[in-house]
Design a protein that fits this description.
alpha/beta, six-stranded parallel β-sheet, five-stranded antiparallel β-sheet, 14 helices, 13 strands, 41% helix, elongated
Amino acid sequence: MTSTALLTDHYELTMLQAALAGGTAHRRAVFELFPRRLPEGRRYGVVAGVGRFLDALACFRFGEAEIEFLRRERVVDDPTLQWLAGYRFGGDIWGYPEGEIYFPYSPLLVVEASFAEAVLLETLALSIYNHDSAIASAASRMTWAAGDRPCIEMGSRRTHEEAAVASARAAYVAGFEATSNLAARQRYGVPTTGTSAHSFTLLHDSERDAFTAQVTSLGKGTTLLVDTYDIVEAVRLGVEVAGTDLGAVRIDSGDLGLLAQQVRDQLDALGATSTRIIVTSDLDEHAIAALAASPVDGYGVGTSLVTGSGVPTAGFVYKLVARCDSSGRLVGVQKRSVGKGSTAHA
């Protein structure tokens, strides 16, 4: 089990040290994770990352290696290190499930425990929820625009390698049907799909040779990439090689709406009426919506999805909303900073 305890910020531990020294660390506290606002032009968000956070919480332990690092770097004092060595979260956590809709000030996650136990989880919770919910929110807009047409996540090469896995999971939560990322399949069971890239076509002496090799190996139901050279000729070759049972063709460049119509007409004229048309190439929810009237059967989305379609973080905060006073009574507390306020609860 790999510890997640150091996936946090320095000040979480210095707050802990001061609270332990001041005698307030063990006061009962309630924290809420919530958004103050939605991004411009958006009416809702989608929660994702719940399962990943709970998995990370289960591994939030300060083992010998973590304690030695903190001691060597003099991050906190010895009494704090002793407390951290025995850290086990013993409070209560509840919140919204994966895929739930949220609005401003929705309490996505509520953590009730001692201040010491709960404050340490701030950075861990925010880093997971902010990333995954941003991706899921963008994915939801894309699947809504796509309607009944499937969306495939294929943005692994456009983001950090671990963010790629989390993005594939978050997109699946929000309605994407599959991903290109095999680690997401291994860890979370997200269906994967994929056939070939332009390099496969360029490897062969001719486009016919490339299509023949792909169909022979993967079957007639495969998807042929048809825009390496000339799309009209590629579609003709594809049907000639695979027959009218060819599974799909993919278009990755150009005016996708116009090309999709031209390819649909050509496929129908060749008798390949059941061959699907998949489009890729820097799609976002707006591009997908613009293709609603085009004869497109599915979308592959990459860069825009894994960057939150212009909103790479959900903007969540993790704030103390209630704590016990010196008499042991739970009282609400409220931050009143301009533009960064919170709501007290008790």
